[in-house]
Amino acid sequence: MKFSSKPCIILLVSSFLLASACTTEVKKQKKLKPKAARAMDFWFTQRAFPSGTVNMSSYSEGYSALKKEKMTSKIAASQIWESIGPMNFGGRTLCLAFNPFDYNTMYAGSASGGLWRSYTGGVGVNAWHQVPTGFPVLGVGTIAINPNDSNEIYIGTGEVYNYQNTGSGWTDRTQEVPMA
């Protein structure tokens, strides 16, 4: 029986090349920074552009200027603010819409108070009045006004807060009432 060393050498060299390729791949993976470190590098690079360094004295100058501005604005704000209303409107406002033909006419949708309208751009103690929709509790989350006919208004409703013990916010609203 004759033994040839050629296949053994080929097998040995192939095994060595395969092992070195796997080792190189593992080494490449180990050199990658963790995602958090890469994120911090990206954060730093943004702030260090274009010079590549962050000027720390500019941060302290900016902080000092901000403190001075806050002190000045507190004094000025206490002297110029005056309540102008509305006094008949409260709660959570979900949306606003302006009449495309008259920007002083605006609508506000509230979380549980329905649809409101102002003809004064919202300025004044009694600037807002409720628009009757025919529904006793109405959360208005969106308002759309037809850009060609401002008398055509669509409202998206919701948030009925278990009206008349209907359970999970669902209520039967079968009555159709045109908006005033």
Summarize the structure.
This protein has 180 residues and is an alpha+beta fold. It has helices at 6-31, 35-48, 56-80, and strands at 93-99, 102-110, 115-118, 128-131, 139-145, 153-158. Mean pLDDT is 75; it is low at 162-167 and 169-173.
Explain how this protein is built.
The protein has 180 residues and is an alpha+beta fold. It has 2 domains: 7-80, no CATH class; 93-165, no CATH class. Helices cover 36% and strands 21% of the residues. It contains 3 helices and 6 strands, in the order H-H-H-E-E-E-E-E-E. The chain has helices at residues 6-31, 35-48, 56-80, and strands at 93-99, 102-110, 115-118, 128-131, 139-145, 153-158. Strands 1-2-3-4 form a 4-stranded antiparallel β-sheet, with no helix packed on it. The longest helix is centred in the first third of the chain and has 26 residues, at 6-31. It is elongated, with a radius of gyration of 34 Å.
Distance between the termini: 108 Å
Strand order across the largest sheet: 1-2-3-4
Helix content: 25-40%
Largest sheet composition:
4 strands, antiparallel
Structural class: alpha+beta
Report strand %: 15-25%
Rg from alpha-carbon coordinates: 34 Å
- Number of helices, where a helix is a run of at least 4 consecutive DSSP H or I residues: 3
What is the overall pLDDT average? Answer: 75
Total beta strands: 6
Reading the helices and strands in chain order gives HHHEEEEEE
Integer tally of domains: 2
Low-confidence stretches: 162-167, 169-173
Principal-axes shape call: elongated
